[in-house]
Amino acid sequence: MTEGSALAAGRGEMDGEHRVQMSLIFALEQALESGLGKDGVKDLVTQLIAFTNVHFMSEQLLMRFAAYPDIGMHEAEHDGLMDQLRRIESSFVLGDSRMMISESQVLRHLLVEHIRTHDLFFSQYLSDSAA
Ligand SMILES: [Fe+2]
Ligand SMILES: [Fe+2]
After folding, report:
1. Is 3 within the bounds of a domain?
2. How far is the CA of 100 from the centre of ligand 2 (A)?
3. How many beta carbons lie within 10 A of that of residue 123, not counting itself?
């Protein structure tokens, strides 16, 4: 499975946002590995948190509109992912870039798994409801 197909939850706007999320994580990992300055890393962490938060809110709003029955479980997943983002932020505050890299890798794996399961289930629910 290619990275592109792994990220395809099946709806254009959701897929586009997932690609932005993954690009931001990738950019953060690259920045940490190449030793980018503190301000640059801080900007990437801030953007990643802000974008992810907006993306999760928009998915959850769509779930409410669509009366999605598994919204509770999906929101709990989002909360867990936001917790992981806060771990990255805490490592940044501690100035621990090794820890930031490993926490970012954990986030990347969790997020890919979330997109190919929970987001895909929701996308399929939307398609079924529209049919
Ligand atoms: Fe998503
Ligand atoms: Fe989601």
Report:
1. no
2. 23
3. 19
